[in-house]
Amino acid sequence: MGLLKTILYILVFYYAFKFLARLLAPFLMKKAAETIQKKAEQQFGNQQPNGSVKEGETIIDKTPRKDQQGKSSVGEYVDFEEID
Fold first, then answer.
1. How far apart are CA 18 and CA 16, in angstroms?
2. With contact defined as beta carbons under 8 Å apart, do 59 and 53 qualify?
């Protein structure tokens, strides 16, 4: 009889948990999405100018380096022959 009670309790707990998860999952997902959105706004909010950029305008934050080395820094070319 003890085994049947244990199995019954496990089944009741399983279905109760499943039912509550269906009710609470959308609420928990919404809260998690809001939290992630707030963190993203805090992290990236300071990087963008507020109203100084017109729509369609491109902004380049970094200028290219002028001290780029040519092909001489790539390495030494080694000629090879195919062997049959």
1. 5
2. yes
In degrees, rounded to 5, the angle at the alpha carbon of residue 13 between the alpha carbons of residues 12 and 18 is 100
Per-residue b or e along 41-66, where b marks 16 or more CB atoms closer than 10 Å to that residue's CB = eeeeeeeeeeeeeeeeeeeeeeeeee
In whole angstroms, give the CA distance from residue 9 to residue 2: 11
pLDDT tens figures, 14-23: 999 999 999 9
CA distances to 22, 36, 54, 61 from 47, rounded to whole Å, are 39, 18, 16, 11
60 secondary structure, DSSP code: -
| 10 pLDDT higher than 70 | yes
User: Is there a contact between 62 and 68 (Cβ–Cβ < 8 Å)?
Assistant: no
End-to-end C-alpha distance for the chain, whole angstroms: 82
Q: Give the domain ranges of the chain.
A: 1-46
